[in-house]
Structures are given as C-alpha cells and as structure tokens.
Design goal:
By secondary structure, the protein is an alpha/beta fold. The protein is 57% helix and 13% strand.
C-alpha cells in the first residue's frame, strides 16, 4: 500500500496482466520516474508469469529499454527478447522503438501507388515533416499502435510514452490532425489540386491570389510550391489516417485498454500524475492505477526521526558509541524522507481516492538487465 495513512485501494497488477480482456497497457508519467523500466518489467512479467504473447513499444528516443532487455538496439519492427523464462508459461516477449519517419514512410507506401509514393518521398517538405515536425511523433505513435492492434498477433501491447505532457500530445493526435486537415490554410493549399491539377499560381480568384501572394512573400515561392505539392500528394491519404487515428483513440477509451500512471513521491511527478489522471477522467479513458516508484522505507517503522536524533545525541555525549550514533542519524534522515514522501503521495490519493495504488521500494542500483526487470515486476505485483 502507499506509505500513507490514507486508505488507498491497492493496485493488483497481476490481475490486469492476466486478464485476456486487457490487450493494451499504456504507461505514462513525468520524465525520470522509471516509466520505461516499469513498462519493460510489466511486459516481461506478462510473458513469463501469465503466458501472454506480449510486445512492448516505446516512443521515447532513449535507449534504456533495449539495454534493460539485453538487446543491442531496437527499431520499428518487433524484435524477440531472448533468454527469458517462458518454457512453462508459453508466453513470448517482443520489443520495439517507434521510428516516426519509417512509420510515416510505411503509411505512404500502404496507401498510395509507387509513383505517387516516390513523389512524396522526394518532396522537401515531406522530408522535414516526417523527421522533425512537431507532433509527427505522436501522430505516428497512434498509427503504430493501431497497426499492432489491428494485426491481432499480440495478447498484450505495452506502450511506454514520453513524459506526460508529451503523452497528452499522443492523446490529442486525432483531434489535432482533424483541426489541421480542416484548417482554412490547408483547404486553400489543396484548392489547386482539387481544381484539376492547375498550378496554385495560375488560379485567378482574387481571394486565393491574394492569399498566395501573401504566403509567398513570407515563405518564398519554392517553399510554398513544396508545401502545396506535399499537401496535394497526401490529400487522400490524410483522410484515411485521420479515420485510423480516431479509431485508435476509441480503442484507448475501451475496456481492453488499461492506463497506468507512473510517478515518484516527489512534488513535480505527483503533480504531473494528477494532471494526467484528470485528463483521462475527462476523456473517459480507463485509468487502472498508480505505480509509485522509488519509495523509501525504514526497517524500524516505529522509531521516529526525533527519537533517533535524541538517542544519537545522548550516545555522543556519553562517548564511545559513535558507530551506533551515526547509524541512528542515518535512520533519522531516512525516517524524515519517508514522512515527506508519505505526505507528497497523499496529495494524489486525497484527490483520487478511488485510483488503486502500489508502492515500489527504491532499488539499490539502476536496472540494466532482465533479472533487474524481474525484480521490479515482482515488487510491483507483491500482495
């Protein structure tokens, strides 16, 4: 249970992992809270203990997931994780990391003919958008998640997201794409292609001519031509992408999805977790619980910091007991940290008393291998 006097319901992670009705688990939270490690540990436990064919997908560009799973690298294709114990369970574990440009290329190839695809790939504006444009990663994450779900090959998809505000961009991707597609500027850029393929500069309507001259002055003729060509080439494909993104969004609202918040008992991380919890509630998305990472505990819970410091002072004054006095001071510092963490965690549990929570004790070292992931998975799942 959360180290707090608040009566929070305990999160039963094994029940979620074993539930065949749960096909997607989304781990979200602030940066630096152990979210990637948590996602990998849960995916490993689902495969080893519950016999599920599992894939873990990260859209975080860091390489920690590959390292913890003993892989040299991850890419846009699910890779089997070797050396895990699935002989008795019959499960499998695969891992992958989103490559947003490659995913964008795959969408183009799947929904256009080879000639048009080559035209799109050669467009300078497409090259920029598919590699660096703000929001592209989130759009492609929705696309990749939808692809994995549609293939039906996985019992469980575990998604590791970027820090929570970026993960909100992930949730917002369909709506943002719709606003972009329905925007006035985009419709004007598409007008030449929809008017029979005429050059945008040959249109004689006063309104569009005025618009094109204004934008040309700001962006330059070549960039505007590239942009117009890019938008025209992707016109039909974007509609299909929007439909697929909307469908994925609906999947994220469904019973088959479980959102897990990951946080540490620090004010910023708890604030981010609360922000995300409110957003999930507003969007009617299934929040299954909070994993509170790196919680500190004392072996002597009834010995307060005040009593420890007082005893240490007495021993120091008496002399000859410095080792014991030092140990009491260390205990006092740990006891104070425990009380502080309990107070911070209570902020979340007070605001969201119905959200199940599990606390994971701080580990002595960072997780770098499968054995470490097993330890984390067991800690999350302890009764």
């Amino acid at each position: 249970m959360v180290p707090s006097d608040h009566a929070a319901q305990r999160l039963d992670v094994d029940r979620i992992l074993a539930d065949p009705g749960v096909r997607i688990m989304v781990c979200c939270g602030a940066g630096g809270v152990g979210k990637t490690t948590t996602a990998a540990a849960l995916a490993l436990r689902a495969a080893e203990r519950h016999g599920r064919r599992t894939v873990v997908l990260t859209i975080d560009p860091a390489r920690r997931l590959a390292q913890s799973l003993g892989l040299t690298e991850l890419d846009n294709t699910p890779r089997p994780v070797k050396g895990i114990d699935v002989e008795s369970s019959g499960g499998e574990l695969h891992a992958m990391m989103l490559d947003m440009k490659r995913t964008f290329d795959e969408v183009v190839l799947a929904h256009t003919d080879p000639v048009k695809a080559a035209e799109i790939f050669a467009n300078p504006f497409y090259q920029a958008v598919s590699s660096t444009f703000a929001g592209t990663q989130e759009y492609m994450a929705m696309e990749k998640l939808g692809q994995l779900h549609a293939r039906g090959e996985w019992d469980l998809i575990v998604l590791d997201t970027p820090p929570s505000r970026s993960a909100l961009d992930f949730l917002d991707a369909p709506a943002r794409l719709s606003r972009f597609l329905d925007g006035r500027m985009l419709r004007m850029l598409l007008a030449p292609a929809r008017a029979g393929g005429k050059s945008m500069f040959s249109l004689v309507t006063a309104s569009f001519g005025l618009f094109s001259r204004a934008v040309q002055k700001i962006l330059g003729a070549q960039l505007l031509t590239d942009l117009s060509g890019f938008v025209a080439a992707l016109d039909s494909m974007f509609g299909g992408f929007r439909q697929r993104a909307d469908k994925t969004y609906q999947i994220l609202q469904a019973r088959e999805t479980a959102f897990l918040l990951v946080a540490t008992p620090e004010p910023d991380a708890i604030r981010e977790a609360a922000y995300f919890a409110r957003r999930l509630r507003e969007e009617s998305m299934p929040l299954s619980g909070l994993v509170l990472n790196r919680v500190h505990r004392t072996a002597v819970g009834d010995l307060s910091a005040e009593r420890s410091l007082a005893a240490a002072a007495e021993l120091t004054e008496a002399g000859g007991h410095e080792g014991t006095a030092d140990a009491l001071r260390v205990h006092a510092a740990l006891a104070e940290q425990t009380v502080r963490e309990r107070r911070v965690a209570k902020i979340f549990t007070d605001d969201f008393p119905t959200v199940p929570t599990v606390a994971v004790t701080a580990q002595p070292a960072d997780v770098h291998d499968v054995d470490g992931l097993r330890t984390i998975g067991a800690a999350i799942s302890l009764p």
